[in-house]
Structure formats: C-alpha cells, structure tokens
Write a structure and sequence with these properties.
Layout: H1 3-9, H2 14-30, H3 34-51, H4 53-56, H5 87-123, H6 125-139, H7 143-154, H8 158-185, H9 188-195, H10 200-236, H11 248-254, H12 267-291
Helix pairs in contact: 3-5, 3-12, 5-6, 5-8, 5-10, 6-8, 7-8, 8-10, 9-10, 10-11, 10-12, 11-12
C-alpha cells in the first residue's frame, strides 16, 4: 500500500495527536494576516451576540415599547421601527435568527450534497450519471426564483425555508464534492481498501473524506455566505423569515421608507449582513491560502 493511507491512518489516532493539534492551530493563527484576524474577531462577536441575544437585548424581540419611528437616543439607542419595537433589540435577535437559520441550512446542504457527491464518485456508472443530470436540471433554474416559487406553494415556515434552500444549494456542494472525490477514488490506496473488502462507508469516511476536507471546509464558508444572503433576500421580498420574528432582511424592508427622510436606520441591518459576509470571505481566503501549500513571500 502507498504512503498515503499510512499518513491518513495516523490522523486523530490517540491522545498525542489531539494534544499537538492545538499548538499547530495557534501557530497558524499567529501567522495569519490582519484580514483573517479581522474576520475571525467579527465572526466570534456575531456568534456571541447570537447565542446570548436574550441577555444582551434591552427589550424583548417583538414587544412594542415606544412610538413609531422614535429617534435615536434616550431609552432607545437606535430608535424604534414602524410599530414601536426597539431596533437595537431586533438587530440582536436578528443575529440569532438569521445566522442560526443560515448555519442549519448550510449544514443540511452539505450533508445532502456531500453524501450524494461521494456516492456518485465512488459508485460511478449509471448512479453517477443519474445524480449528475438531476443536479444539472436543478442548477439550470435560477435559485432565487425557484425558491420564491416553492415557498409560495408550500408556505414560508422556517422548516420549509431551511429544507428548500438546503436542497437547492446542495447542488453546488454535490458538484464540488464529486469533482474532488473523483480525483481521489482512482488512487492506489482507495483501490487497496476495496480489495481488502472494506465497506463503502469506511472508504468514504476513512480514505476519501480526509483527503478532500480542505476544499469542502472553504466551500462551507462560501456557501454559508450565499445561503445567508439568500435568506436575507427572501425575507426582504416577504417570503423568508416571517414577522414578528426579527430578521435583518425584513428589517430593511420594514424601515426602508426612512431613507426618503435621510435616516440611515435601514442601513444598519444591511450593514450587519455585509460585515458578516466580508468577514467570512476573509477567513475563507486565508484558509484556502493555507491549504494550497503556497508560502508567503518575505
């Protein structure tokens, strides 16, 4: 058997490997560029706000606490919306709702697309062709328009939103997983595992998956951004996360009339969306550079 399987089989085996992982991660972080550190800090802040939203928000998510469009300051740091709900509180709860749904959708998308992509690469033949052609058909339809149509038919509940976007987005994950896995299934150590009688699940998780993780991890960050923006766009159009649940996309729509009066309040949730997207892309760019094997010029 070639050297590759021996290298893979030592990953994560025993306590010493786990102990040495943390120092390696810390060394990589110390050499990370400022953009990567900026992205990591922003992502950490967003997730802390999302997790502890009930403790950080000054008011409940949907409670009417003032008049319509009260100005900034006083009891309402960022003013109120069209119903008199505190905007700062809704921004904080919007982080939990928007980011949480985007993470769950992306995880489900990778579970569906990743498994199908691995099956297509390993089994090949008619299974590969059937799955690939089905994915081509779905990808030929504009994703946002298809999502709008399906949500109009099945309703705009959170479960439907997650399932529909995850299935539509899994087509991109399938294409990437299939492409990178097909470069691995033809290698000697995979063929040796087959000749040894290893089962399909073992080959997928122990031989192929460890060798294709870097591009998949990078793609996870990019797909999260696309899913995050898709959910915000659907909410802005009225078919995403439904009121009274706080969501950054719907908050832009609800307060858009203030733009006519020179009020920048609608730009706050839009800025939250843009900042997180930029931060995730900074981290993904750094990770891709690290896993590519390229070295920085000194």
């Amino acid at each position: 058997m070639s050297a590759e399987p021996a290298e893979i089989s030592t990953i994560g085996k025993g306590a010493p490997g786990r102990r040495s992982a943390l120092p390696a991660v810390w060394r990589a972080l110390k050499r990370a560029p400022p953009t990567a550190w900026f992205g990591l800090v922003v992502i950490a802040i967003y997730f802390v706000v999302a997790i502890f939203a009930p403790l950080l928000a000054p008011y409940p998510e949907s409670e009417i606490v003032g008049g319509a469009y009260d100005p900034w300051g006083g009891d309402f740091l960022l003013g109120t919306d069209q119903l008199g709900r505190d905007l700062l509180s809704r921004l904080i709860f919007g982080a939990r709702n928007t980011i949480g749904i985007a993470v769950m959708t992306t995880l489900l998308s990778f579970t569906i697309g990743g498994l199908l992509g691995l099956f297509a690469a390993i089994l090949g033949g008619w299974t590969d062709q059937l799955l690939a052609r089905a994915v081509d058909i779905l990808m030929a339809i504009p994703q946002l328009i298809f999502a709008l149509m399906l949500l109009s038919i099945f309703g705009s509940s959170i479960i439907n939103l997650i399932l529909i976007i995850a299935v539509l987005d899994s087509t991109r994950v399938f294409r990437l997983t299939r492409a990178v896995a097909m470069n691995v299934v033809v290698l000697d150590f995979v063929e040796a595992a087959r000749l040894q009688g290893e089962k399909l699940g073992w080959i997928m998780t122990r031989e192929i998956l460890p060798n294709i993780l870097p591009p998949l991890v990078a793609e996870f960050g990019l797909r999260f951004c696309f899913v995050f923006l898709t959910i915000a766009a659907l909410s802005f159009l009225g078919l995403g996360i439904q009121p009274p649940t706080a969501d950054w996309g719907s908050m832009v729509r609800e307060n858009a009339t203030l733009i006519n009066y020179g009020d920048v309040t609608p730009l706050l949730p839009a800025g939250c969306i843009a900042l997180l997207t930029v931060a995730v892309n900074f981290v993904v760019d750094w990770f891709l550079h690290k896993t590519s094997g390229l070295r920085d010029e000194r």
